[in-house]
Records
---
Amino acid sequence: MSDRGRGVTFARGFTAGAAMAGVKTGRSERLDVALIVSDRPCAAAGVFTQNTVIAAPCLVTRKHLQSGALRAIVVNSGNANATTGAQGERDAEAMAAAAAEKLGIAANEVGVASTGVIGVPLPIDRVKAGLAKVEPTVAGWDDASRAIMTTDTKPKVAEREVAIGQGIVRIGGICKGAGMIHPDMATMLAFVTTDAKIEAAALREMLTDAARDTFNAVSVDGDTSTNDTLLILANGASGIAVEPSDRERFVGVLTQVCEDLARMIVADGEGATKVFEVVVRGARSDEDARRAARTVTTSNLVKTAIHGADPNWGRILAAAGRSGAFVDAGRASVTVGDIVVFKAGTPQKPDLDAVRRVFSEPQIAIDIDLGVGNGKARAWGCDLSAEYVHINADYTT
Amino acid sequence: MSDRGRGVTFARGFTAGAAMAGVKTGRSERLDVALIVSDRPCAAAGVFTQNTVIAAPCLVTRKHLQSGALRAIVVNSGNANATTGAQGERDAEAMAAAAAEKLGIAANEVGVASTGVIGVPLPIDRVKAGLAKVEPTVAGWDDASRAIMTTDTKPKVAEREVAIGQGIVRIGGICKGAGMIHPDMATMLAFVTTDAKIEAAALREMLTDAARDTFNAVSVDGDTSTNDTLLILANGASGIAVEPSDRERFVGVLTQVCEDLARMIVADGEGATKVFEVVVRGARSDEDARRAARTVTTSNLVKTAIHGADPNWGRILAAAGRSGAFVDAGRASVTVGDIVVFKAGTPQKPDLDAVRRVFSEPQIAIDIDLGVGNGKARAWGCDLSAEYVHINADYTT
């Protein structure tokens, strides 16, 4: 990861800023309205929640993205504007319109995102009043990264450079944690900017590719919140176009930025004290491998065992077995850290104290070889702590 | 529920008993090997885990059930004999053989079940030594109900009578909690006996029907442990045959017994302090309704909100929305206790203190009308507490 900082304003031509609008109450981090702005039109693409109960800002942003172009993103935290009915859609449109008016652009050039409590009408007047106070600058990336936080304990920022043709293009982003990424993913928001020149259709494809093994590997397909949003804006300010022959390199670095951000989300999972990476190999297909890896990372039994450094490794295989992936326990192998606990169907009677030591580390590697094919995937999870319960048992109040 | 007690020995011709075999270590409840025996051959049927990583005792019992007849069930707690490879199957067969030898019956007349830590070889010598000490009696139902417990805080026993033709037949059962029924269901074991005379094929059908909206509504299809087992033995000791015309009545009472037991499992969920019932109506199909109801009962966000009496009711609709059921938020309604919080797509701005009061009750009713059809289902869940984490972070040790 670059040490340059700046996240969404790392790419040239972007500014950002935030203000306190009084939507996010009872939290220590009070910035709660953010703007990300390009100085020129951008190609834009998005990936949204697969929840069929989709929040108003996602509906509005999807509509605005039909042109393949955006110039700004407006975000609020503290209220998700979800399950808020027709009024919710009017409020999301009003948020876009207020940002557009402020910036002197069209309302359909603005993407909208919200995160926070659901089922409560958005206090749109407060959002608009807060928005009026935002002054986007290159230095405003930090405020923007804080304004989108809910139960996150720290802002999440990443950026990388990639050499394309004769020059260097920049990619940067910010995101907010899916506090309870596992298994409910209470709203992951991620915003990525680049000064590369890319047409919208190609951008959409590349974003989908980059999300699949990063953000979507810390959430679970079909197991998402009402508001999950990943947006990318490409403004071409570098003057460098990403040609078809450059795409693989560009998408590789875009994927790295997304992985950096996704890992920060896991590490900052609500109440999380440890992160674990699950690699599934030898599956019948990549899709099967993904299914197994994600089920292991979302198993409450695996998550609590890791939390307590309980060497109950059998839970790992049991979780894979209920994932829907093809699992033949007689051919599977499981390795925890560097300890083979189960090999080709036979338990290896591992030293439980050694397994306990592996589970005591802040980063834990779990490798599952299903032994039935060549499919492979990775997923990341965090432990489940009593602190998670405390946070989520008292979210509204 | 009858107040007669006796569970598995309520039906005539059955005895039960248990002993301490030293398999279950570090728990206050030390009985850990149980026998349930009929004085004559029985028709028998079973329902097993859908996890593709299936434990050895389930494999062995399924094989023994191919004849449609059993005469005894042997159970141990403390070790699940799961993910234990070929040795595990030999151990499960040895358990059946030891019980058979003790009782003077054939090994394939014995059903086997195990629950406890997975991935650790079964200490078969201890199990056999414990088994030798068991003396099945009519009074032994209580010991048997305790010997199958793991993290359960109390034994679970139910029984009912049903009038068939000129007489009364009896149905009784015991079960052990699926500690972490949500979402991983760490082994639910349930054993039901009846003195009705029923042929095996009919018994199998009736058991499947009874399980669908009871035990399977507190677990989740495809989301089960390696060992889940529900067995029924029908020994005909009442002299009363269940004719085709009696089946509906019999299955109704059998379902009641299963529901009694399933509700005890939820109420005794690990760390649970409250139980909630989710009714989904107006779904496109019963299957869709089941999917939505079960997803709501397994949502960590819903479970923690209920634990903390946090009136964050939007999480209920969000969980239904990611269930895979067809949900149109514009047509859905949600009622919590007697408070309509969301009606036909519009939030009702309910009094949050009133919602908080509903969520503070020990029993909570949640009603979701999807407004798109006639499908209906119920499911039961329990809250997620910090205590759940404590229990499961330190299970092995």
---
Amino acid sequence: MNQRPIGVFDSGLGGLTAVRQLRRLMPSENIIYFGDTSRVPYGNRSRETILKYARQDTRFLRSFDLKAIVIACGTVSSNCLTELRAENDIPIIEVVGPAAQRAAAVTKNHRIGVVATRATISSGAFANALGASLDLMVFSCPCPLFVPLVEEGRCRPGDPVIELVAEEYLRPLRDNNVDTLVLGCTHYPLLADVIGQIMGPDVALIDSGAEAAGALQTLLSEQDALAEREKGSASFYTSDRAADFQRLAALFLGKDLPVQAKQIDITAY
Amino acid sequence: MNQRPIGVFDSGLGGLTAVRQLRRLMPSENIIYFGDTSRVPYGNRSRETILKYARQDTRFLRSFDLKAIVIACGTVSSNCLTELRAENDIPIIEVVGPAAQRAAAVTKNHRIGVVATRATISSGAFANALGASLDLMVFSCPCPLFVPLVEEGRCRPGDPVIELVAEEYLRPLRDNNVDTLVLGCTHYPLLADVIGQIMGPDVALIDSGAEAAGALQTLLSEQDALAEREKGSASFYTSDRAADFQRLAALFLGKDLPVQAKQIDITAY
């Protein structure tokens, strides 16, 4: 048993989709979330800048006494994992490996699609993780407009803009007959209905945040480090105005934040 | 005569459209440009965060011995002008006032539209500047997807996504019979063709960066502070990778950067 909290961070609000899965799987855990809303999005920035930001995010979370960190951001997971693991002495779970494993287990025709930010696709992290496990065909597509659209709340079927953009990005993957599609960015589960409509019911969608939550549960269980209490708590920190975070968080979490978010100065870390 | 350089800054690359106008009007001037590409976009952030960033941008530019600063960013111009002018002892030209003056001078039916980022529209700066000068009807529309689309290079007629988004944003302005439309963000001149197609040939488009360049020329001329040399130089600084800035800059400047951009750490200012 380990009662210490789990730290979770993302460039912004997308990681809250992973928090939702963590709370569903492990309702006894305490969670501390940081969303870097004053510098979102990360997905078009250079690797060097993403690493600088990710180190500050991690240092802020380490100001709490954590038992593990979840990188709930595809861009950071695919660009900074080596450094963050080397620099931290607690387990770090990320969203690329578990999703790649699940995709490799699920595919029947060995044709897997990956959608993610430009920085994630450029890193080759998903292709590497998938290539390592099996003889798979991987079709990757950077989707740079998905994050801005989701952050505008334009993520539901019937919105002509998201439908047009998604059709453009996904057509080549559909034409290549992938039977499994990795949603390699924690913003994308909010697009699951739109994406599902375009890819059709026979394509399995892999939620990378949910897979990371599952991987953390397995790890904590193996290490006998799960928390034991009736109901875990959650705290939310953000680098821009707390009220703005609070307002948008409901979209990602599926319900209103249970507590007030707090603003911190991330450049101090 | 004053040979000192002019400092110009923007959240990212949009301000280069203003640099283009400055160089066209005043080819003898030396220009120092800073684009905050590690923190772009500003337009959806809180006023407090925008002010913090704008102060750092200004402090970096003041590390050079300038004769004037151009805020080539609608979001900063509309949210931070009072503070930046109070804190700096050199002239600061911004993109709201000159564009509002031009719009008021150009309109015949006294119906003016304004498109800009959410933070600019929320500030009410354009509505105030226009309301102060005449009895005008002002129709404002935040266009939060324009900056991400332009930064993706999706700004030309024939691109179905920008055409769909622009039609959605501009329809209410067209239905309200505005005869003048202020492009209240320095990214938007790149959308002039798309916007012109939707608004029709009878609607005058006001380029806020070009108007700011004109206002600076008037000011320097009145103060006898124009530079006198055959050909001015330009230097470009950015807070993310110089190579990425270099690659995208051509789109905004209309030609390749004449010199290598340099990366600086903006959080040190």
